[in-house]
Write a structure and sequence with these properties.
alpha+beta; 9-stranded mixed beta sheet; two-stranded antiparallel ribbon; 9 helices; 11 strands; about 20% strand; elongated
Length: about 300
């Protein structure tokens, strides 16, 4: 019994010695890895290894007493503690933030030079056929809505920053007479020759007509002139004939509210000017597009009143 017990004890001792040796070897490797981590050193590849591989690879599990060599467990959100997030749990923009609509620049009821430019650009891409008027009216809203729908934008009829940038990219900056294609431009200062008496004061630079009495402006209207080949004459003239329902014998075209001042040239209403604006020209006459305005002017002007046409 004693010998048997002693034999088993010896065998157990030898087994223990073998296991203890393996434990010491692994512990030494763990210690070396820990030292590398603490000291900030790195294992350099062996000069004799053509592939540049490190001569020793040691896997260190997160548990200080775990030397089993098993892979480290994957951390879960519960392991990471409060205030941390895994790569798959990073916060993303909320749906409400992503859906914030662009700022609205102009909408129905707005007016001014910027609205006039918007309308001029919409005309360039054939979405607006009237104006520019400088007022964001129903026609402008419908034109914007059509432009938006064609390009996959929300059909709001309001000009927001996205719609405006898209329109800018497709058009050129409108010139002065694109902005005032159908009139509405401010009048220039009157020629000094217009400051006395009763005068139809016509300015070619601003394309406007002032009806003035003793230096006071009674009314102002937009006008159009002859083309390069049929220019409107400049100078000081007098109204010598008025013809309410005149028709041109040379061009067979109506010239209502005609007030003749130089040969066959007259100030008169033009339906073509009312429709096409400065896209057209007269045969030398001074065209007025506002029929109501020239009807009032015709009623006030007398034969013998002065007409000044200047640049």
């Amino acid at each position: 019994m004693t010998d048997a017990a002693g034999s088993r004890g010896f065998t157990g001792s030898r087994g223990f010695t073998g296991r203890r040796g393996r434990v010491r070897a692994v512990a030494a490797a763990v210690g070396a890895a820990a030292l590398v981590t603490v000291c900030g050193c790195t294992v350099q590849p062996s000069p004799g290894d053509p592939k540049g591989r490190a001569p020793v690879h040691v896997r260190v599990s997160p548990g200080a007493g775990d030397v089993s060599g098993a892979p480290a467990p994957t951390a879960t959100p519960a392991d990471e503690g409060p205030g941390t997030s895994s790569p798959t749990q990073r916060p993303t923009p909320t749906a409400s933030a992503a859906a914030t609509p662009p700022a609205v620049l102009w909408s129905r009821g707005a007016y001014g030079r910027d609205v006039r430019e918007l309308q001029a650009r919409l005309r360039q891409v054939d979405w607006l056929h009237d104006g520019p008027t400088g007022t964001y009216d129903g026609a402008t809203a419908e034109a914007v809505k059509g432009f938006q729908g064609k390009r996959g934008l929300p059909r709001t009829g309001q000009t927001d920053t996205v719609t405006w940038q898209r329109l800018l990219a497709m058009t050129h900056e409108p010139g002065r007479w694109e902005l005032y294609l159908l009139g509405g431009q401010p009048a220039a200062a009157p020629d000094p020759r217009c400051l006395t008496g009763r005068v139809i004061c016509v300015d070619k630079t601003s394309r406007t007509l002032r009806w003035m009495i003793d230096g006071r402006t009674v009314s102002t209207m937009s006008v159009r002139f002859g083309s390069q080949y049929t220019p409107t004459r400049e100078g000081v003239f007098q109204v010598y004939w008025k013809s309410r329902h005149h028709v041109s014998t040379l061009y067979d075209s109506p010239m209502p509210y005609a007030m003749f001042f130089s040969g066959g040239q007259a100030v008169h209403y033009s339906s073509d000017f009312a429709m096409r604006g400065y896209a057209g020209a007269s045969h030398g006459c001074v065209n007025v597009r506002d029929e109501g305005a020239i009807a009032k002017l015709f009623a006030q002007v007398r034969n013998g009143d002065k007409v000044v046409v200047s640049w």
